[in-house]
């Protein structure tokens, strides 16, 4: 195959001769192979050698050769459009080929000729339309492949007005057989006609476009509902909505009511499709609906979760009504958040607004982005403006991404964000500091007032914000380092800048460490003292978990089979064996990590606990659970009761040894129930709540050990009298604001609901 690819590039003259020989060979398989090579790897320099043979192969006896020859011509025409003019006549004949695959290929090539050679467009349009009309009479829902191809070609070539009666005849046939594919294909072809032409054919054929799809509106199947909306969206509203005086409304009042109810559908696609449809009918409908929805939302007290949902739907309306005007969109966003944010409980963050607005701006064209960003960032420079925490986060993200595209001086943007730094809670201060750090790279000099404000903000802040303030103070004066971080960022977005910044911080931190042992708790055989692990990696606390990805494991050794089958055997070996464990033997497997925690905390077994000196048992610090998971109090829910587990049967469905958190988390086969959210309690309180669960066994993975570095990894094993029922995997992120971000995957809905209730999310 490599030789033949080089042949088609013209690199090998003898090889090119071999390729031509394949095209001229009697073997069907060799001809097809040569044609496939041309289709997938076309080059201009092969055209002179093969064009005459391709012309002959268009009339070959075998349909596989004819079909491939058509596609080969289309592929080579990218380099020389004159090929299409040369084969124009044969393509017209192949449109009515006896083999449906060849006829379909000819229709696609005809569409290319129509758009490439204007003087052939009339003949091509007539041929494709004639073929379509003939196929309508032999249409069958079970053999519709050629009809689908014809409709695709007609979308590019255009249906003749004379062929409209045939299209309506096909519509009657496919609607009676509920052929959704042909139905939507037909409506997309009819989209090119105005309502006057379609109305005339309706009267002529006694077939209405709305009547053909009316049954889909009554269906409870969301696919049918979406099909109905798509069909209506494809034709002029004047034909059915009563917007034209000459044509009355076709839909009944109850049908209009059903369509309006779809605005509250739980299906995002159906909601958005309904919005687009109503906007086509009359923009005032959506404007009135939007005003009423904002009024209702601000008139009642709503939980933050419900408020987020309503804001998401309000933004969907703005996405449709605003269109491509970035400045208008920014003004609407400012007004909306100005009305909604005061109603957020406890100055909560509306994450749906952050996600929806930033994604909409990012998906728009460059002119929309610049206009929207410039209008929004002007708010930063207005110190008299009233903005909430959600708007502040949005402005920080926009400043990070678009500061180089707007006309505001970087120093002005930097001072503007700094003005709002101390006026917001810590969860908002972090994105502000990150945006300031990004903008500082473009400043000739950071103003002293900014440095002073950041320094003052860090004095009374939590540990995490102090770290960000120190980071800004250090790096803001190192312009080359900042520019290097920006260059290494995957994009200009705030999350990607944060990721590049954290990589830079880790590289510096790792360079200062003496060895890899610094990342693991060390155990002294003499005193069993604990050495705390290194600092944990921080992430934006308002950002949700990303899709789980496999991370290279740090494990190099596994427990022996005997250790796996007898997890409680350590307690039976006595305290001397437990104290003889070294950090090297404990830091490579999940099971040994669990044993290490039990040894450190004096709860390896009842025997060890009895011999421990109570005066030497200190209360361990739980201030920094996100980076010091091994420093958990003696009543830790993560410690396995060795006496209990040692007596349990090893024949249960789930192995009683330490489970492989990473492989189970990344498996989609058993963990069918998922949940995520914020818990309004600090991580130590979350631990105490989980400890109170009855009938469960728990295991822990430290935050500074793979997988999912930075997350506390908890395995919850639920069991009944007969054995284990299932497992749940919980990942916790730390927050300095006495809250925790969590994500749960489990095998049973009962376990999911129980954990959700404990974490205050039900």
Automatic annotation (TrEMBL):
GO biological process, one term: protein transport
Organism name: Leucocoprinus birnbaumii
Name the record gives this protein: ARM repeat-containing protein
A single cellular component GO annotation: endomembrane system
Biased composition range(s): Low complexity: 560-576
Location of this chain's protein in the cell: Endomembrane system
Biased composition (Polar residues): 521-538, 577-589
Keywords annotated in UniProt: Membrane, Protein transport, Transport
Source species, domain of life: Eukaryota
Coiled-coil residue spans: none
Signal peptide residues on this chain, from the entry's feature table: none
InterPro entries: Adaptor_Complx_Large_Subunit, ARM-like, ARM-type_fold
Annotated region (Disordered), positions in chain: 510-538, 550-589
């Amino acid at each position: 195959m490599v030789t033949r690819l080089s042949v088609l590039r013209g690199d090998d003259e003898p090889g090119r001769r071999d390729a031509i020989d394949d095209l001229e060979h009697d073997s069907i398989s060799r001809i097809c192979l040569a044609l496939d090579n041309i289709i997938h790897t076309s080059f201009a320099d092969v055209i002179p050698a093969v064009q005459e043979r391709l012309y002959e192969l268009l009339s070959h006896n075998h349909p596989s050769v004819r079909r491939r020859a058509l596609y080969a011509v289309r592929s080579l025409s990218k380099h020389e459009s004159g090929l299409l003019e040369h084969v124009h006549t044969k393509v017209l004949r192949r449109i009515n080929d006896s083999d449906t695959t060849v006829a379909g290929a000819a229709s696609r090539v005809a569409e290319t000729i129509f758009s490439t050679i204007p003087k052939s467009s009339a003949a091509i349009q007539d041929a494709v339309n004639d073929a379509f009309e003939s196929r309508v009479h032999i249409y069958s829902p079970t053999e519709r492949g050629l009809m689908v191809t014809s409709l695709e070609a007609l979308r590019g070539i255009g249906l003749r007005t004379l062929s409209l009666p045939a299209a309506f005849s096909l519509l009657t046939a496919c609607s009676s057989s509920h052929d959704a594919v042909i139905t939507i294909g037909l409506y997309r072809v009819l989209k090119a006609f105005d309502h006057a032409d379609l109305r005339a054919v309706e009267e002529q054929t006694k077939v209405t476009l709305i009547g053909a799809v009316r049954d889909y509106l009554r269906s409870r199947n969301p696919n049918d509902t979406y099909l109905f909306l798509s069909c209506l969206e494809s034709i002029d509203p004047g034909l059915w909505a009563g917007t034209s005086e000459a044509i009355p409304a076709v839909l009944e009042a109850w049908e209009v009511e059903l369509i309006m109810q779809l605005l509250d559908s739980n299906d995002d696609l159906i909601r958005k499709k309904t919005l687009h449809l109503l906007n086509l009918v009359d923009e005032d409908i959506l404007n009135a609906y939007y005003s009423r929805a904002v009024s209702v939302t601000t008139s009642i007290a709503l939980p933050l979760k419900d408020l987020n949902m309503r804001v998401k739907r309000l933004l969907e309306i703005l996405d449709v009504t605003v269109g491509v005007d970035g400045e208008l969109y920014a003004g609407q966003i400012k007004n909306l958040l100005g009305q909604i944010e005061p109603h957020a409980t406890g100055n909560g963050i509306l994450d749906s607004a952050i996600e929806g607005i930033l994604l909409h701006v990012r998906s728009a064209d460059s002119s929309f982005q610049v206009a929207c960003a410039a209008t929004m960032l002007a708010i930063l420079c207005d110190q008299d403006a009233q903005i909430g925490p959600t708007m502040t986060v949005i402005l920080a993200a926009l400043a990070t991404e678009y500061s180089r595209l707007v006309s505001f001086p970087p120093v002005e943007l930097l001072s503007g964000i700094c003005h709002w730094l101390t006026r917001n809670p810590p969860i908002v201060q972090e994105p502000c500091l990150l945006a300031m750090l990004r903008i500082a790279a473009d400043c000739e000099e950071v103003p002293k007032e900014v440095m002073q404000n950041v320094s003052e903000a860090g004095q009374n802040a939590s540990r995490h914000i102090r770290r960000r303030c120190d980071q800004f103070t250090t790096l803001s004066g190192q312009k080359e380092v900042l520019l290097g971080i920006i260059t290494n960022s995957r994009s200009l977005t705030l999350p990607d800048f944060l990721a590049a910044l954290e990589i830079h911080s880790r590289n510096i931190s790792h360079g200062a460490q003496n060895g890899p042992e610094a990342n693991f708790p060390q155990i002294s055989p003499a005193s069993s003292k604990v050495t705390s692990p290194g600092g944990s990696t921080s992430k934006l606390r308002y950002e949700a978990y990303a899709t789980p990805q496999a991370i290279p494991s740090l494990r190099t050794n596994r427990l022996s089979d005997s250790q796996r089958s007898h997890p409680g055997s350590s307690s039976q070996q006595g305290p001397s064996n437990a104290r003889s464990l070294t950090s090297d033997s404990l830091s490579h497997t999940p099971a040994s990590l669990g044993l290490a925690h039990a040894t450190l905390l004096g709860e390896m077994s009842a025997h060890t606990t009895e011999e421990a000196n109570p005066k030497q048992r200190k209360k361990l610090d739980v201030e920094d659970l996100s980076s010091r998971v091994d420093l958990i109090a003696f009543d830790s829910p993560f410690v396995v009761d060795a006496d209990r587990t040692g007596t349990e049967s090893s024949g249960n469905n789930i192995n009683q040894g330490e489970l492989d958190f990473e492989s189970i988390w990344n498996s989609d086969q058993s963990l069918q129930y998922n949940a995520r959210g914020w818990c309004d309690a600090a991580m130590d309180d979350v631990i105490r709540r989980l400890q109170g669960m009855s009938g469960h066994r728990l295991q822990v993975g430290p935050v500074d050990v793979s997988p999912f570095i930075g997350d506390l990894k908890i395995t919850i094993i639920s069991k009944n009298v007969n054995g284990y029922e299932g497992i749940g995997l919980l990942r916790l992120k730390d927050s300095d604001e006495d809250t925790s971000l969590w994500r749960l995957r489990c095998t049973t809905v009962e376990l999911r609901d129980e954990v959700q209730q404990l974490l205050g999310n039900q």
